[in-house]
Amino acid sequence: MSPESEGGGRSGGPGESPGVPIHLRPARDGDVPALVPLLLRLKRLNEEFDPLLKVRDDADQQAKQVLKADIANPKAVVLAAEGVGADKDKVVGFVRALVRERPFYAPEHEGVILDIYLLPIYRRRGVGEYVLRETSNALKAKGAAVVTAEFPSQNEIASRFYTKRGFRPITEVQARSL
Amino acid sequence: MAQSVSAPVERERTARQKAREAAAAERSEDQTDLLGERSLELSRYFGGKIETVPKVPVRSLADFALWYTPGVARVSRAIRADPESAFDLTGRWNTIAIVTDGSRVLGLGDIGPRAALPVMEGKALLFKFLGGVDAIPIPIQVSSPDQFIATVEAMAPAFGGVNLEDIASPKCFGILEELQKRLPIPVWHDDQLGTAAATVAGLLNALELTHRSVREVRTVLLGAGAANLVTARLLLELGHPAHQLTLVDQKGVLHADREDLDELELRNPWKYKIALRTNGGGRTGDLAAALDGADVLLAASTPNPDTIRPEHVRSMAKDPIVFALANPVPEIWPDVARSAGAAIVATGRSDFPNQVNNSLIFPAVFRGVLDARARSIPDEVVLAAAKELARGAARKGLTAQHLLPTMEEPEVFPQIAAAVGDTAVRLGIARRKLSHDEFLDRATTLMGRSGQLVRALARARLTPPMPRAPARRRRTR
To answer: From the CB of residue B443, how many other CB atoms can be counted at a distance below 10 Å?
Structure first.
């Protein structure tokens, strides 16, 4: 079940939640040019947190390929966020997530949220909630029974966002240069 | 960019005008050098600027049985039983802490707490002399905002208020917000609130003079540091339309689509919030793009007289209002701004008309909140002080050259203190509810007493007279 098949929203369209200034739908190939700059904004923000998250020079090429591949990948969830009203048809954010297998742990399938990005003026109360709910539903529809989120350890805003919504740290990733 | 516009304008500025500006800049630098030398000598001669002085008679050592043990134990028991009685039984009612970590001192930058002490002593002297407030300079060595907050919270029992001073932006916002939340006494950061209140006061009068309302103008703020972010907030609280407010920083117009906004959300949420609320027209680009057609320019950026160009002023609406508040050198020289059409110009300097000076605000604000024994200091109080300062100038006659009272018009200070006291009572944050006249009388007495004290100490030779300044040759350049 994808957010689109859920229906139930207002006349603004499926996947829309009352009072939320965006509308989520599965991303299409044609969205890639609009998604690339958003993905890069997110990665460049991550650069702030650690020198080992330095963005590569060819990141925009990579972004294009990764997005295209994920949109085609049945194990991936890529949602585009559109504005409503005057901003309808304008891509203002996106989510990228992946269903991974866990060979040793139960439940077997984990939905990993890799990227969530919304342009600042669309980050209103309730929007994050809505995006997380829609993403979780899409991951669940692809067989995931647990949802996780990856982000830089120093990103306190992300950390607070997930903790407030019942997430807890389960795996720690540490790094050093070689 | 305005490249093509600026070239002919550059030629337009006469050589004489340029020479005059250069001379003014040099004069100001020379004078600053001389004052610095003298200040250093005097600091050495007097060994600092303030000391504690008894306020009770001591007839003989026997009196210490009252002032100190055993008598004082009864006073301590009384405060233990009723903590609020400390405001009656000790000097807490009139004592504030001036706290800094020395991370942004004057134009000197991060010089640390030790080097910040002479500045804090000077501030304490101003508090006493102008406001009758006993202010204790406390520069602290801390390594994080959390440690700063914990330290101030730990020392709060001794004080009726806290004045934060010279703390770098943006950490000053978080420190102020958190301390205001935690402490049952007013906490003030002068670089934010004092400067913003004085700016708003000047602006209200400038608008009055040019028959405009804060509810209809378009305003550009140049610089998005401690003062201007609070000025923006106060203007919004006064009903300035958010979409007609535009902030400009080193990166240009602050707008919601700017690439660095995600970083701002993390590092400077106060600026981030303002970015989302303001700049309704969706302007992007530099100062010129923001200013086109604006009524008001409030600059609190970096000292450089070429920051605001004459063509910038010319592109503004009719009767533009220009505040160039950088010190020691304004963002545009006042005569340059006026010849480019500015109707009203203000700076941060005392040698030009219309000095926007936080010393017009902070002594009176603290006099007012201390007399009301206020629990906090919300923006309503700040705005009450700003409006009363504006009225003070109006009472003497408002002109383009007399926008704000000068430091030579001390009668306005007790009025501001009374307005602050009244507002604290109205908001229900006053521990002591005096009438307007009582606040006014009390402020007049306590503020006047400091001058008497200084003169009496000098007459009795308890403060030595100023030593003669050594003859100095004017430095050749």
So the answer is: 26
- Residue B263: list chain A partners with CB under 8 A: 45, 48
Nearest Cα to Cα of residue B368 among B378, B381, B380, B387: B381
- Which two tokens mark A112? 């990993």
pLDDT in the model for residue B3: 39
Cα four-point dihedral sign B66, B132, B115, B110: positive
Interface test with A, best of B266, B274, B279 (most A CBs within 10 A): B266
- What is the average pLDDT score of chain A? 89
Domain residue ranges of chain B, discontinuous segments joined by +: 40-54+77-190, 211-342, 359-459
The pLDDT confidence band at residue A154, using thresholds 50, 70 and 90, is very high
**Residue range A108-140, pLDDT digits in tens:** 999 999 999 999 989 877 899 999 999 999 999
User: Is the pTM for the entire model greater than 0.90?
Assistant: no
Of B54, B162, B125, the closest CA to residue B450 belongs to B125
Other C-beta atoms closer than 10 Å to the C-beta of B170 total 19
Chain A stretch 44-73, residues whose beta carbon is closer than 8 A to a beta carbon of chain B? 44-45, 48
- Asked if A120 lies within 8 A of B262 by C-beta distance, the reply is yes
B266/A120 touch (CB, cutoff 8 Å), yes or no: no
pLDDT given for residue B473 in this prediction: 56
Average pLDDT over residues A85-98: 91
Q: Cβ separation of A120 and B272 shorter than 8 Å?
A: yes
List B123, B128, B271, B387, catalytic entry: B123
Domain boundary assignment for chain A = 3-164
Residue B91, pLDDT above cutoff 90: yes
Banded pLDDT at B8 (limits 50, 70, 90): very low
Q: Does B127 touch chain A (CB under 8 A)?
A: no
CATH number of A3-164: 3.40.630.30, 3.40.50.300, 3.40.50.360, 3.40.50.150?
3.40.630.30
The distance of B257 to chain A (nearest Cα, Å) reads: 7
Residues from chain B contacting residue A93 (CB–CB below 8 Å):
none
Q: Does domain B211-342 have CATH number 3.40.50.720?
A: yes
Cβ contact A29:A68 at 8 Å: yes
Asked if the C-beta of A119 comes within 8 angstroms of chain B's C-beta atoms, the answer is yes
Of A120, A155, A156, the CB nearest to B276: A120
Asked whether the beta carbons of residue B256 and residue A156 sit closer than 8 angstroms, the reply is no
Q: Is the pLDDT of residue B12 over 60?
A: no
Q: What is the DSSP letter of A81?
A: E
Using the Cβ of A157 and the Cβ atoms of chain B, whether some distance falls under 8 Å is answered with: yes
**Rounded to whole angstroms, how far apart are CA atoms B196 and B209?**
20
Distance CA B427, CA B381 (A): 9
CA distance B271 to B276: 9
- B123 as an active site residue: the answer is yes
Sheet containing strand B344-347, edge to edge, reads B252-253, B245-249, B219-222, B296-299, B321-324, B344-347
- Multiple choice CATH, B40-54+77-190, 3.10.20.30, 3.30.565.10, 3.40.640.10, 3.40.50.10380: 3.40.50.10380
- pLDDT band for A7, please (50, 70, 90 cuts): very low
Each residue's pLDDT tens digit, B269-314: 999 999 999 998 889 999 999 999 999 999 999 999 999 999 999 9
